[in-house]
Every structure is written in structure tokens, then in C-alpha cells.
Design a protein that fits this description.
Elements (H helix, E strand, L loop, with lengths): L7 E7 L2 E7 L3 H6 L1 E2 L9 H11 L6 E7 L2 E9 L15 E9 L8 H9 L9 E6 L6 H4 L3 H14 L3 E3 L4 H4 L5 E6 L5 H11 L7
Parallel strand pairs: 3-5, 6-7
Antiparallel strand pairs: 1-2, 2-4, 4-5, 5-6, 7-9, 8-9
Helix pairs in contact: 3-5
Length: 210
């Protein structure tokens, strides 16, 4: 499918600090901004910045950023699921994954994650997509936040719901391996019944769940 992208932005003033939430941004925009040193949830900040630049080359990519002046302090990345994951097994060119969302440890407490997802969903083209996210407790920054698994899960669900994502059942072994793990998704208003059927088929590889 053609990946139409319409840029949106909003200005956010929180706790006497001014942020811009914007996207989908281009590769040139990513290259023109600095990258905050606290963005280390997945890899060292320099390597994560390089990964963000690489993602910006993918035709289906949608990168939403939060910045303070010219410094990226948070981001959300949407792209096709990893080829090694079950979600890529269906031939749906309108199924994309929230591959990562991260706020710098230096900028937590400003509500930036929710606003990243809100800006992402401002684009009308998102009504053509099934957007999924897979949440695994072992990826969560429990030590840095001081939250328990279930407290973090509650925060994560609130963030995802701000973008319209809801909990969906699945028999995926990794998700089923711990009750805190979950699949969340948002099905756009223009997604066809056939596409929803394919999504349901990949959610459950076994006909019956007891």
C-alpha cells in the first residue's frame, strides 16, 4: 500500500518547560536534531540515534519525536513487524507495529509518551492501519522507575490507551509466558473485515484456547 504521511505537531508546556511533539518526521529532520544522552533504554544513546536514522530510510516508517528546542528527548517508531515475529506471517501491508517508544530518563514526568501517541494518531492515514504493540515485562525499566511489574503495566496501558490501543488476547507463547505481558492494538476505522480476520488468525494459531 502507499504509505501516506501527514505531518502534525503540538506545543506542550509542562512544569515550566516547552516541548514540541511532531511527526512523522523525515530523515533530514532526525539528522538535524541532537539526541539526549538519557535515551538508553534499548542501547547506548549514540547507537540508538543511529538506529533511528536507519529506520527513517524504511518506506513504511513513522517516527514521532518529542524535543526540547533542538534536542530529541523522546520518540515513537512505527514500522513493519520483525520478519522473525509471528505478526509478519500474515500478508497484510497495513499491519504496523509500535516498535519502540522511549522517553529520556532525564525528561520523565512530563506526559510526553502519551502525547507522542496522540500526535501519531492525528494522521488520518492511521485509520487504514492495524497498529500493534507487544509488551514484555523484561523490557520495562523497573529499576529506573522504582515501579513494580504491575504498577508499570498500569502506566504502560494508560500510555497505550491514549493512542487508542486496546488489550487483545493471543496465544503467542512469549506473551503467554507471564501474565503482565500483553498484546495491544488499534484497528483503524477503514480497515477491512478481511484484514481483521487475518489479524485474528495470527493472534490465535491454535483453534481453541482453554
Amino acid at each position: 500500500m502507499e504509505h501516506k504521511k501527514t505531518y502534525h505537531s503540538l506545543e506542550l508546556n509542562q512544569n515550566d518547560r516547552a516541548f514540541v511533539i511532531e511527526g512523522p518526521v523525515t530523515k533530514d529532520a532526525v539528522l538535524n536534531y541532537d539526541f539526549d544522552s538519557g535515551l538508553i533504554a534499548f542501547r547506548p544513546a549514540k547507537q540508538q540515534y543511529e538506529a533511528l536514522v536507519k529506520v527513517s530510510d524504511l518506506p513504511e516508517n513513522r517516527i514521532i519525536i518529542a524535543r526540547e528546542e533542538n534536542v530529541i528527548v523522546g520518540y515513537a517508531i512505527f514500522l513493519y513487524p520483525d520478519p522473525l515475529e509471528r505478526w509478519s506471517e500474515v500478508e497484510l501491508d497495513n499491519l504496523i507495529e509500535l516498535g519502540a517508544i522511549e522517553i529520556s530518563s532525564n525528561y520523565r514526568g512530563h506526559g510526553l509518551a502519551q502525547h507522542l501517541l496522540k500526535v501519531a494518531m492525528m494522521d488520518d492515514a492511521m485509520e487504514d492501519y492495524i497498529v500493534i504493540t507487544t509488551e514484555y515485562y523484561w523490557h520495562w525499566d523497573l529499576r529506573g522507575t522504582g515501579l513494580s511489574i504491575w504498577e508499570y503495566r498500569d502506566v504502560m496501558e494508560k500510555v497505550m490507551k491514549s493512542g487508542g490501543l486496546e488489550w487483545y488476547a493471543t496465544d503467542d507463547p512469549e506473551i503467554c509466558s507471564h501474565p503482565a505481558n500483553c498484546l495491544m492494538a488499534r484497528i483503524g476505522s477503514r480497515v477491512t473485515a478481511d484484514a481483521v480476520h487475518e489479524f485474528n488468525r495470527v493472534r490465535f494459531k491454535h483453534k481453541y484456547m482453554f
